[in-house]
Amino acid sequence: EKYYAETYGIVLDTACKDVNRLRFISYDPDIFHNTKSKTWNKIFKEENVKKHDKDFLCH
């Protein structure tokens, strides 16, 4: 935690301290940032979607 706070100025989520979880930070020195991008503001009406009888989990 101290390393990330001092190096990157970020605070880690203290609720997720399970060491088995995947954690990573990506870095791209040549990242593209579109300064002319537009905000998507269209809202679509929710359609009647058939719901499944049982819950299922996808990995």
The gist of it:
The protein has one helix at residues 2-8. The model has no long low-confidence stretch (mean pLDDT 78).
Keywords:
59 residues, little secondary structure, 12% helix, flat
Shape: flat
Structure classification: little secondary structure
Number of helices: 1
- Strand proportion: under 5%
* C-alpha termini separation: 28 Å
- Supply Rg: 20 Å
Which regions contain 5 or more consecutive residues with pLDDT less than 50? none
Output the helix-strand order.
H
Mean pLDDT reading: 78
Biggest β-sheet strands, sense, barrel: none
How many runs of DSSP E, i.e. beta strands? Answer: 0
**Helical fraction:** 10-25%
What does this structure look like?
This protein is largely without helices or strands and 59 residues long. The chain has a domain of 25 residues. Helix content is 12%, strand content 0%. The two termini are 28 Å apart. The mean pLDDT is 78.
